[in-house]
Design a protein that fits this description.
Its EC number is 1.3.3.3. The chain has a single domain, classed as Coproporphyrinogen III oxidase, aerobic (oxygen-dependent coproporphyrinogen oxidase, 3-Layer(aba) Sandwich), CATH 3.40.1500. It is 43% helix and 24% strand. It is built from ten helices and nine strands. The strands form two sheets. It has a seven-stranded antiparallel sheet. Strands 7-8 form a two-stranded antiparallel sheet. α1 packs parallel to α6.
Length: 298
Amino acid sequence: MMFKEEVAERYKQIQDEICRGLEIADGKGKFEEELWERNGGGGGRTRIMQNGAIIEKGGVNFSAVHGKLPEAVKKAFNVSEDDFFATGVSIVIHPNHPLVPIIHMNIRYFELNEETRWFGGGIDLTPHYVFENDARFFHHKLKQACDDFGTEFYPKFKTHADDYFFIKHREETRGIGGIFYDRLKPENTNLSWEQILDFSINIGETFLPIYTELIDRNRDKEFTEAQKQWQYQRRSRYVEFNLVYDSGTKFGLETNGRIESILMSLPPQANWGYNVQPEVNSAEYKTQQLLKKGINWI
């Protein structure tokens, strides 16, 4: 089996495990699968859950695509080759409960040839309300997953996440960050290709225990209509980031990706109230104060 085929097969297994685990955690919803083929080469498995007990809309997508790189992407990647292969798992979960956070994960592998290839990915959390104990739990779990492969990984990738998941036109982070990494290869990690794949899989396997714990901590809490409206307001920030800044969205659109799979990251409903300003010292206000780069959650 070629290395890229091994990567794709292990990513498919991650997709299967996470879908099974999320169905158990939700208790009601089931994923519907749509198999698709990409014009130009490859395809994927889109799995969507809607209107579950806690998951209002969630996507756990796998893709393995190949073909010719568009000129715009070649320039962005600073490469001259045309033929590419890319595979990955992409997850976005939007809960119906305002005290349960949005979560996103992506693990991916990109290859042009033996010399030009790399891994990327990460996990980040977007709470509608920031609970500091939950934030510390989330970051501790990510640090543990990183430390298994390099103690320098977590601080480096945490900083990358703070910088990447930043809504410049709002001057706030999308949520409480997490880890984000790109272009990992032996030269910049001191790991072999197989070890970097193991790291990628380890990140994927960290997703389920983290998110099921956060669901269980918060799903039975009562909430008000005002908190629900705040959830819709925070979702709008998520939409703004994904449509304006997200590199995965841009790559998918520029490589003729499947539009329904690309935009599955968007919530079923979001509100754009005009100049919404939470009351000082309210829970909403305190959440806004924590949407900043550089917070040490460890």
